[in-house]
């Protein structure tokens, strides 16, 4: 039983890496098989719902990773401005280190599949809701009023996702750094 779980996890991890780099549509099952080292039959065994089911698991994993990172970042900050600065700096550094390939996998999955797959639309909705909710919760712990924290969280998530698209296109983190600086000013 442990081996099946390991194979399933490897498939999800490989899918996450691919979908961060290429999106949903450009990630083929054969890429996932090659990257995970799993036999093709294992992919269909573990994911009877096919690539949509794999993508849903990618969104679930990315949600957990993001929430863990936000909690760790908040634990190290002293102010709301420091928290948001550190969040955007971490995203910018990771994106630059990946040569502008490893972005958020959820936005492309939602853009490419949410009108055809309700399960992916709902998974994406939960991801963005959890991201905004976590940011807002941390902002309130730093003294930002609840409704304002919710609005700033929505602004931050929207701006970061847009800046990732610009950064990938321009191959620079300038847009992310602009978002960081403006959020810092907003929260100062």
Q: Globular, elongated, flat, extended or rod-shaped: what is the shape?
A: elongated
Give the topology string: H per helix, E per strand.
HHHHHHHHH
Taking pLDDT < 50 over at least 5 consecutive residues as the criterion, the unreliable ranges are none
Count the beta strands: 0
What does the main sheet amount to?
none
Descriptive notes:
With 188 residues, the protein is an all-alpha fold. It has one domain (55-187): Tetracycline Repressor, domain 2 (Orthogonal Bundle), CATH 1.10.357.10. 81% of the residues lie in helices and 0% in strands. It has nine helices and no strands. α7 packs across α8. The mean pLDDT is 95.
Could you write a compact summary of the structure shown?
The protein has nine helices and no strands. By secondary structure, the chain is mostly helical.
List the helices and strands and how they pair.
Layout: H1 2-22, H2 29-36, H3 40-46, H4 50-76, H5 80-97, H6 106-113, H7 118-141, H8 146-170, H9 174-187
Helix pairs in contact: 1-2, 1-4, 4-7, 5-9, 6-7, 7-8, 8-9
Primary descriptors:
188 residues, mainly alpha, Tetracycline Repressor, domain 2, 9 helices, 0% strand, elongated
């Amino acid at each position: 039983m442990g081996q099946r779980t390991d194979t399933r996890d490897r498939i999800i991890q490989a899918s996450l890496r691919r979908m961060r780099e290429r999106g949903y549509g450009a990630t083929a099952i054969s890429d996932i098989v090659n990257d995970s080292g799993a036999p093709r039959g294992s992919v269909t065994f573990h994911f009877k719902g096919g690539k949509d089911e794999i993508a849903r698991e990618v969104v679930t994993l990315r949600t957990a990773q993001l929430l863990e990172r936000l909690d760790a970042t908040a634990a190290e900050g002293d102010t709301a401005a420091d928290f948001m600065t550190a969040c955007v700096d971490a995203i910018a550094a990771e994106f630059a280190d990946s040569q502008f390939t490893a972005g958020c996998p959820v936005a492309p999955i939602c853009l490419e599949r949410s009108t055809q797959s309700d399960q992916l639309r709902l998974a994406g909705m939960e991801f963005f809701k959890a991201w905004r909710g976590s940011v807002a919760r941390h902002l309130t712990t730093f003294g930002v009023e609840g409704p304002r924290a919710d609005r700033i969280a929505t602004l931050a998530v929207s701006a970061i996702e847009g800046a990732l698209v610009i950064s990938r296109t321009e191959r620079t983190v300038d847009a992310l750094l602009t978002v960081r600086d403006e959020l810092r000013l907003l929260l100062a």
